[in-house]
Design a protein that fits this description.
This protein is mainly alpha-helical. Helix content is 76%, strand content 0%. The relative contact order is 0.13. It is elongated, with a radius of gyration of 19 Å.
């Protein structure tokens, strides 16, 4: 049974990732998407061109921070999609997401009907929603140095 739940979760995360990525590529996010891709490509180039493995750690830290900052719009979109997909859709479909439906699984209340608040809390805990929100808060409030220290632990 656990394997089916894990597989359903992977199917659902794949769907959330596709939806989030497609939304991120909409015209309103073009600048953010371009900035993110440029930083990411520069990071990969730096890693690939350092044949000896002698990396400039400060430069890589800059890339990590810039990629994280540039991905904030994607993280905001992802949080919204997570809430809608797992919380709202899952609740409306009586405890099933697409992944759960494909594998004939469902979240059920011990007694009676699903409680919307408890259902949303459960899905938030299961999907890592709080980590996404925490990352957004840290990126928004911490200095570059503090963020890099916090992101290593």
């Amino acid at each position: 049974m656990k394997i089916k739940r894990i597989l359903a979760y992977f199917i659902d995360i794949f769907i959330v990732t596709i939806i989030s990525s497609l939304l991120f590529m909409l015209p309103g996010f073009k600048d953010s998407y371009t900035t993110y891709n440029n930083y990411y490509n520069d990071y990969v180039d730096e890693l690939m061109n350092s044949g000896s493995g002698d990396y400039d750690v400060d430069k890589l830290d800059d890339f990590q921070y810039n990629i994280s900052k540039a991905s904030m719009p994607l993280m905001i979109i992802r949080v919204g999609v997570l809430i809608i997909y797992f919380g709202v859709v899952g609740f409306i479909l009586n405890g099933q997401t697409i992944g759960k439906k494909l594998l004939h699984l469902r979240v059920k209340a011990v007694e009676g009907n699903l409680n919307p608040g408890l259902f949303m809390l459960r899905e938030a805990l299961v999907t890592g929603f709080f980590f996404e929100v925490l990352s957004l808060i840290l990126l928004s409030t911490l200095s570059k140095g503090a963020f890099l220290i916090a992101s290593t632990y």
